[in-house]
Design brief:
Peptidase_M18_dom2; alpha/beta; globular; six-stranded antiparallel beta sheet; hydrolase; single chain; zinc ion binding; Aminopeptidase i, Domain 2; metal-binding; Aminopeptidase
């Protein structure tokens, strides 16, 4: 069995995590890699001219992305990998400026199911998408990444809250507003204008609207005496985005292959660019119309002859909380990818798709594990059941085991990165599903 500790792979992963603080940055950085590899950008508003043997990508809302390779002949099946670009965190409110005790603070709302306690006392940057109006009246959306420690959420000293270690609840409205500078009159708008001028050279542009988040500036790192662990923000689910993209780029192109990374999974996927929206369906229809059979029946045949691997991280067995797992289904870090199973269809896995993935792992010489939550605990979900419901494609849910899911800093195994990347590559190259 291969070791799967790949120094170059991990270095690329850490670079990707570091420069992708938001879904917009993640999609942009994946698009850059795709173009470097010869993928042609498509615009959804344009007429597509797809050709067999070519490779393409398309984005929606600048935060979701689909990339695909077409075989040299007619497209009759697609090997698909799905992930999501968003992560839980703190999003700025539209009228974010507030002042208290002589400090400029910014009001936030919690995006997704974030663990709030780890956000205290961290060096925070600000990143996201900003729309500006230029002097000629033209509107433009641009990326902003203030990768400097411009904010923090300070803890309250234990001397002033003796119950702090006894499970005190955190109020996100009153206790989570980060502080930016000592001032009782500075507003957010001039700060945004300054940052946009520094990063984009804008001098007369007016900020019209924005979608901005705070994020932890601590860089990804390899942890442990033997570097067994990878620690970083946004492993859920940029780790899966990275592995899916790596597999697509490494695939031989003989089969029809597709990689999709949706936004908004952490808040239910119900959006135009989320897994519950029509993005994937629209692309498959256009592929079928131009390089497939062209009919509605051939589209159904294409989808039912295909398979989707939904990649989203799994809960690894925690050494301090072993009782939180079923004793027979506690995935170990660095013991291979995890097949995620739930009888109530919170995961899309069934015995047929599970058997396929087990066979893929056998071919890739990769260990494989299974996860089922305790019968007395609830279960999260992924884009897998949503994609299967919306598209009808046979789907399996898998993921890398990790600790501290939805924390500001999460932990996964360094060898598992190589394991799942290898398995996904074999899946994309597989001649028979």
């Amino acid at each position: 069995m291969p070791n799967a500790f790949d120094t170059h792979l991990l270095a690329r992963l850490c670079d990707f995590l570091r420069v992708s603080p938001t879904p917009w940055h993640a999609s942009h950085n994946m698009a850059v890699r795709l173009e470097q590899a010869g993928f042609e950008r498509l615009e959804e508003t344009a007429t597509w001219q797809l050709a067999p043997g070519r490779r393409y990508y398309v984005t929606r809302n600048d935060s979701s992305i689909i990339a695909f390779k077409l075989p040299k002949g007619r497209v009759e099946t697609m090997r698909m990998i799905g992930a999501h670009t968003d992560s839980p965190g703190l999003r700025l409110k539209p009228n974010a400026t507030q002042h208290s005790a002589g400090w400029l603070q910014l009001g936030v709302e919690v995006y997704g199911g974030a663990l709030l306690a780890p956000w205290f006392d961290r060096d925070l940057g600000i990143a996201g998408r900003v729309h500006v109006r230029h002097a000629d009246g033209r509107l433009e959306g641009v990326l902003l990444n203030v990768d400097q420690p411009v904010a923090m959420v300070p803890s309250l000293a234990i001397h002033l809250d003796r119950e702090a270690n006894n499970g005190r609840a955190i109020n996100p409205q009153t206790q989570m507003a980060p502080v930016l500078m000592q001032s009782d009159n500075v507003e957010l708008a001039p700060l945004l204008s300054t940052w946009l001028r520094e990063q984009h050279g804008f001098r007369d542009a007016e900020v019209v609207d924005f979608e901005l988040s705070f994020y932890d500036l601590q860089a990804p790192s390899l942890v442990g005496v033997s570097q067994e662990l990878l620690a970083s923000a946004r492993l859920d689910n940029l780790l899966s985005c990275f592995m899916g993209l790596e597999a697509l780029l490494a695939s031989d192109g003989e089969q029809g292959t597709l990689f999709i990374a949706n936004d908004h999974e952490e808040v239910g996927s119900a959006s135009a660019c989320g897994a519950q929206g029509p993005f994937l369906g629209d692309v498959l229809k256009r592929i079928n119309a131009q390089v497939g059979g062209g009919s509605e029946e051939s589209l159904i045949q294409l989808i039912q002859s295909s398979c989707m691997i939904s990649c989203d991280n799994a809960h690894a067995l925690h050494p301090n909380f072993c009782d939180k797992h079923d004793e027979r289904h506690g995935p170990m870090i660095n013991a291979g990818p995890v097949i995620k199973i739930n009888a109530n269809q919170r995961y899309a896995t069934n015995s047929a798709t599970s058997a396929l993935f087990r066979d893929v792992c056998r071919e890739a010489e990769v260990p494989v594990q299974a996860f089922v939550t305790r019968a007395d605990m609830g279960c999260g979900s992924t884009i897998g059941p949503i994609t299967a419901t919306e598209i009808g494609v046979p789907t399996i849910d898998v993921g890398v085991p990790q600790w501290a899911m939805h924390s500001i800093r999460e932990t996964a195994g360094t060898r598992d990165v190589g394991y799942l990347t290898d398995a996904l590559t074999v899946f994309l190259n597989r001649k028979v599903l």
